[in-house]
Write a structure and sequence with these properties.
Elements: H1 2-13, H2 20-35, H3 39-65, H4 79-85, H5 90-103, H6 121-133, H7 138-153
Helix pairs in contact: 1-3, 2-3, 3-6, 5-6, 5-7
């Protein structure tokens, strides 16, 4: 559990975005450190942290499969800094991220209870930002998301192992 918490805090220290889910996870971690938690809450915290790691690995893996390497790995990536540095069109970024979300590349599971901002948004934005930096248009984003989905279904990412069921 300490390893998962350390990975989460390392990632959060590099990001300027603090979502509602981050707030809830931070509160759960603080409660776990200060007073301990009932078994059910520890399991919930562990699953939420594992889901984040799993989706981060998927985002890095998908970017690598498409040959997109302009941004650092998602753990080191700061969305606000990227938008400022590369002067990205925010609407195109949102549209591309929406295409990736709807493609189902990142499952919507393992989120913290009562979270209104599910974590799959960050991996989707990361992949969308990589695609926009590689000058993908909307059709290219749709085709790439479809190709990644096909590769996943065909087992071409067989080295990727699920962390939990």
């Amino acid at each position: 559990m300490e390893y998962l918490i350390k990975q989460y805090t390392r990632e959060q220290s590099k990001s300027e975005i603090f979502t509602f889910e981050d707030y809830m996870l931070s509160r759960k971690i603080q409660t776990w450190h200060n007073w301990g938690q009932p078994c059910k809450e520890r399991i919930s915290l562990r699953r939420a942290l594992l889901a984040r790691l799993e989706l981060n690995r998927k985002a890095n893996m998908y970017a690598g499969a498409l040959g997109l390497h302009r941004l650092p790995d998602i753990e080191e990536w700061d969305p606000l800094q990227t938008e400022e540095l590369y002067d990205m069109d925010i609407e195109r970024l949102r549209w591309s991220a929406r295409i990736i979300i709807e493609s189902g590349l990142f499952e919507k599971k393992g989120n913290v209870r009562h979270s209104y901002i599910p974590y799959y948004h960050k991996p989707s934005r990361y992949l969308a930002a990589e695609m926009l930096l590689a000058v993908y248009d909307e059709v290219d984003v749709e085709n790439a998301a479809g190709e990644l989905g096909r590769m996943q279904r065909d087992g071409q990412f067989s080295w990727y192992r699920r962390v939990f069921h």
